[in-house]
Amino acid sequence: MQSFKPGRRQAIKVIGATLGACAVPMPFVQTARAQNHNFAGKTLRLLTWSDDTGAAALRNIAETFSKQTGAKVIADRADGTSGMVAKVKAAGDRPTYDVITLAGVGASGLADAGLLAKPDLDRLPNLKDVPAAYRTGANGFGVGYLLWSDGLVYNTSTVKTPPASYEALWDPKYSGRLFLPPPEWAEAVDLTIIAAKLAGGSQQNIEPGFHKLAELKDRVMTLGENPNQIADLFRTGSLDIGGIYSAAFFPDQIRKPEYNMGITYGMKEGFATQLMFTVIPKAHPGDLDLIHAFINHSLDAGVQGRMAADVLNGPVNGRAVIPAESRAFVPSPKQIAEKAVLHDDKALAAVQAAWIKRYTGLFAA
Amino acid sequence: MSALSSPTAQPAASSTSEARDQPALPRVPPWLLLAPIVAVLSVLVAATLVVLRMSFGVSGNEWHTFTLQNYADLADAYFLKSLWLTVRLAFESMVFAMLLAIPVALAMARTESRLARRLILACVLLPLLVNLLLQGYGWLVILGPAGLLNHALKAAGLAGRPVMWLYREQGVLLGLIQTAFPLAVLPMSSALRAVSRSFDEASATLGASRWQTLRYVTLPLAMPGIVSGALLVFAYNASAFAVPLLLGGRRVPMLAVLVHDQVAPLLNWPAASASGVALMATTLSVMAISQRLARRLQHTVEPR
């Protein structure tokens, strides 16, 4: 009995300790569940794009979030970032949306107008897999969502080896069969910086960039305002190369062999990216736990991989696995870590208006 | 005694005449009949006033600020060049559209066959029935580097390399002429139909050739319709957006395209509004001047 008693006591202790140990992480388990399961009957109002990107967000993020948590996601869709900004400005103090996904310029504009609430990054555990540069932006009001990635688009039937440098745009053999981004796009700003760097300048010393771009004036066929037109010009064999441009503009055509389109991010100078954001309006109808759970879900490695594959943007989550069929069109997390050059929204917004004028004047036919 | 003259028949007759005097519809004050058009116009006027007010605002705080800076910025060579290009292309498209419209409008006005007139009308109206974007894509198919025109030129041995009209001013001009063509034809055709044929006959009797009759009789008499058509084409094309965007490939910076740039991505609505107001003012001024010139011309042709 004597010897049994300590054993029984020991057993009780072990069981007690085990239960205690089990009890200790319970709050975290509860928290994790709260992120996933405690939102049945609650509603989140999302504002996103009206194009394929928005449709993919609904399919890959909103639907899976609803399945996992029971929360209802009501989506409103706007035609582009300016449309979203207009809607949020029009809503003013009225709680209309809980979460908005939009481009950097829109996030900064809304933040500057005092219309956004800062997200609590501690409530976004998936951020641990996101490199620090892509976690936040727009003065801390935006959470990185996807990386809009620009590469060189080339004709797979006339350009046999993917270009390894932006100098390919200045190759005389592509004269008249070349396209560039239109002046009002961020891509034009990034291309000007790339040209400046090629010519020995920099973002701060942009003059050499405009001089180098001027060499292309008579060689460029079009400034690719309309991605469908660009895709069709590749299909008919009228274009050899162009950029910088995103595969996200023609996610369907670029996968079809008859369009003869390829995209490369393997330039030795790196490739340009723009961080897209998720933001929370200051006046939001839904509760903050639900909002943070939704944003955290959008950063999940699986969700990021599927979104990247669908919309052909780079994932911000470094552990995202991109489905095999889309890998040729999307930069991998490794390429992003090594070669991505992030568009500096704030600094470039200050010069964009002036650069648009110069770029427009430069290429006016 | 007839039933009509009988005392019992009189009240019935008077009630019938009263009923005949009453209008079919209940009496409505005349101003109420104008209500729908006033409602529509007031929305348009309100929208214009909003744009005007916004053009004096500061970006980000449009409604509570006042500045003339947005208008001062329009003195920039970038906007002036774009304004000049816009006015020039609108004017050129107006001239070409009117010249092309004359034979079509004459045919519509002078043909005896109803069927022929309807067929011509249907052909003329087609651009208005087809979406502008689709028309733009049609031009892409025709003018593109691998388009129908280049195929034909290549097949005929007239061009070794593709002729590039697309993404150039020529392509935009073609698009502007084609999309605005109905606006040139329809007022001109109505005006020509209103010119009595007896003038033609009188002119012929006096020995004028057909060309002289057209030049000195028919067209001057139809001048009000021709001027209306020309002004419509000019105003329509001065604010063109889709055509220069699609056919210009962003290399033909007409003003409406630059206004769009101010809205997205720059989100500078006051600057966009100021550009819009400048475009409106320019278009209205050109229209007013043209109308005055046309009136003076008409007075010269028809001396009192």
Would you give an account of this structure?
The complex is a heterodimer of chains A (365) and B (304). Chain A has 365 residues and is an alpha/beta fold. Chain A folds into two domains: 40-147 and 274-330, Periplasmic binding protein-like II (D-Maltodextrin-Binding Protein, domain 2); 148-273 and 345-363, D-Maltodextrin-Binding Protein, domain 2 (3-Layer(aba) Sandwich). Helices cover 42% and strands 19% of the residues of chain A. In chain A, strands 1, 2, 3, 4, 5, 6, 7, 8, 9, 10, 11, 12 and 13 form a 13-stranded mixed sheet that branches. The termini of chain A are far apart. Chain B is an all-alpha fold and 304 residues long. Mean pLDDT of chain B is 85; it is low at 1-10.
Secondary structure layout plus pairing:
The complex is a heterodimer of chains A (365) and B (304).
Chain A: H1 4-23, H2 26-36, E1 43-49, H3 52-69, E2 72-78, H4 80-91, E3 99-103, H5 104-112, E4 116-117, H6 132-135, E5 136-137, E6 142-155, E7 178-180, H7 186-198, H8 207-214, E8 220-223, H9 227-235, E9 241-245, E10 261-264, E11 271-281, H10 288-298, H11 301-311, E12 314-315, H12 333-339, E13 340-342, H13 345-363
Parallel strand pairs in A: 1-2, 1-3, 7-8, 7-9, 11-13
Antiparallel strand pairs in A: 3-11, 4-11, 5-6, 6-9, 6-10, 6-11, 6-12
Chain B: H1 9-21, H2 30-33, H3 35-54, H4 69-72, H5 77-110, H6 114-129, H7 132-143, H8 148-155, H9 169-194, H10 197-205, H11 210-221, H12 223-238, H13 242-248, H14 255-263, H15 269-301
Helix pairs in contact in B: 3-15, 5-6, 5-9, 5-12, 6-9, 7-13, 9-12, 9-13, 10-11, 12-15, 14-15
